[in-house]
Every structure is written in C-alpha cells, then in structure tokens.
Amino acid sequence: MRQRSAILLAGACLAAMAACGGGEKAKAGGPEVTAKDLSFKPAKISVKLGDQVTWTFEDKGTSHNVTAEDGSFRSENLAKGTFVHPFDKPGSFSYICTIHPTQMKGTVDVRA
Description:
4-stranded mixed sheet; single chain; alpha/beta; globular; Immunoglobulin-like; 1 helix
C-alpha cells in the first residue's frame, strides 16, 4: 500500500511539473535577476557554464517577460513569479522584455 501511494505521489509531482512548463517556473537557486520598476536588476550578469538564472517578477499589476534576442529562451508574461533558464553553452545572451523593450534590457555572459 505504501509503494502504491509513493507511485501516485510521484506521478502527481511529474504532472504538476509538466503543467508548469517542465519546471522552468520553479526557483532554482544560483544567479538571480529581478524584474521590477520597468528594469532588470542587475541588467548584466556573468555566470558559469551550466548555471541556471532565475528571473523574479515583482512589479505590482504590470506584466513582463524575458525574451532572448537570439530566440534561445522566452518566458511567459508574468506580473509575479519566477522564470528559470539553464545556460549550457558559452557566450553573451542579450534579452529584453517584449512588452517594454526600450526600458527593459539585459545581458547574461556565460563563461566556460
């Protein structure tokens, strides 16, 4: 009976992760950027290859997103919550909020 409960619980957890986009909204730890007051803070960060960056959305009543200029990642529009993206190749990745593209810009530099 315990084994069946554990299997059902594991299935429910997997279903919940799938419903949230594979877990990309879950807080991952590591480097963080805050989207607040029509800006990304810090606007430029350097991370190690393999790091996951967490963007935390904290603007009251205003939605934002994180969209890589090269199309490699994009969050949904969020007023509150988090978006996590792993960086598995080196380089410089510029991103914007497509809702506020002139005010909200940032860069993630990934070093090997």
